[in-house]
TrEMBL record:
<keyword id="KW-0560">Oxidoreductase</keyword>
<keyword id="KW-0479">Metal-binding</keyword>
<dbReference type="GO" id="GO:0008270">
    <property type="term" value="F:zinc ion binding"/>
</dbReference>
<keyword id="KW-0862">Zinc</keyword>
<dbReference type="Pfam" id="PF08240">
    <property type="entry name" value="ADH_N"/>
</dbReference>
<dbReference type="GO" id="GO:0016491">
    <property type="term" value="F:oxidoreductase activity"/>
</dbReference>
<feature type="domain" description="Alcohol dehydrogenase-like N-terminal">
    <location>
        <begin position="25"/>
        <end position="152"/>
    </location>
</feature>
<keyword id="KW-0812">Transmembrane</keyword>
<dbReference type="InterPro" id="IPR011032">
    <property type="entry name" value="GroES-like_sf"/>
</dbReference>
<dbReference type="InterPro" id="IPR036291">
    <property type="entry name" value="NAD(P)-bd_dom_sf"/>
</dbReference>
<keyword id="KW-0472">Membrane</keyword>
<feature type="domain" description="Alcohol dehydrogenase-like C-terminal">
    <location>
        <begin position="196"/>
        <end position="265"/>
    </location>
</feature>
<dbReference type="InterPro" id="IPR013149">
    <property type="entry name" value="ADH-like_C"/>
</dbReference>
<comment type="similarity">
    <text>Belongs to the zinc-containing alcohol dehydrogenase family.</text>
</comment>
<dbReference type="Pfam" id="PF00107">
    <property type="entry name" value="ADH_zinc_N"/>
</dbReference>
<dbReference type="InterPro" id="IPR013154">
    <property type="entry name" value="ADH-like_N"/>
</dbReference>
<feature type="transmembrane region" description="Helical">
    <location>
        <begin position="189"/>
        <end position="208"/>
    </location>
</feature>
Amino acid sequence: MKATIWAGRNNVEVHTVPDPKILNDRDAIVRITSTAICGSDLHIYDGYIPTVKRGDVLGHEFMGEVVEVGKAVPNLAVGDRVVVPFPIACGACAACERELYSLCENSNPNAGIVEKLMGHSPAGLFGYSHMLGGFAGGQAEFARVPFADVGPLKIEDDLTDEQVLFLSDILPTGYMGAEMCNIRPGDVVAVWGVGPVGLFSVVSAYLLGASKVIAIDRVAYRLALAEQQGAVPINFAETSVLEALADITAGRGPDHCIDAAGMEARNSSTVVDAYDRVKQAARLETERPHALREAIMSCRNGGTISIVGVYGGLMDKFPIGAVMNRSLIIKTGQCHVQHYMRPLLDRIRNGDIDPTFVISHHLSLDDAPHGYEIFKHKQDNCTKVILKP
């Protein structure tokens, strides 16, 4: 089959690789009809995620048709149309029983590797390094889905791939970012980074009762999309974010701040940005936490910092003093996608959310390298790339 593989820093290629096979009775094989390039994939593309190896199949947002099922997968049949969540979860461990699916205790066969970096292991993920399981991803023609009796969500109506594909990751992630804020009617929410996840956080914050959502980015067309969804845009390349947020909130600060930017945030107008870029390039720190620092310094006393942008390891100059002395609440996590898929599917069916507004490009799987380039460099107004195998 054809698949997108990591071929080194800033280099992906489409190669022919072996077809996946059933390895466990709880596996299924899915013929992929739609897959996508995620902002998290760019961290791999840029070389900042450890234990990625040349030849690894990338991608964790995918859906398709079941073509084979293991003996212990009673809920799926050949021909079923499914969306696959990006965390792999067994459904039976202590974490899964609490619906903390991205923390599954049984799905990462390489837990010992990540424990050295993080203390305990999260779940295995599709297409996201060997420390997180080494599972082949979904930017391919076929994928093996472990624990298929737990993860995949059947789509049993005529909703298009484009309407439901993002249930695999970015829609639940953006929604969880807003939900973790415990928004009350009248609250003001600020979102750093309005790529697809940030855009879904904007929409979700309004669904959950926010009176005003502020979108912070430097890419004009992304800010325009956020404004179309009702957000107040701030271009951090043109104005001081802290001053603008103080003006909008009468000096109090936003009630909740969502970091949807993650480990490669930057603001070239600041000295600390240059510091972070040098240390990250030299692998002396793994993050550029500009957005997170700014969110902490902007948030009102007693407010919430919700982190759904991906971080991989260690950062410098984290303002823990501000967090502790100002009673800030930090909530974070890889999304527990299985928990959110069906409720959000219902919202899509009801017309509460139309996820298709983030899509800018449809490409063939063969064009994946081009998709990565335009997504990374914000070319051709690229917001979200869907690949068709």
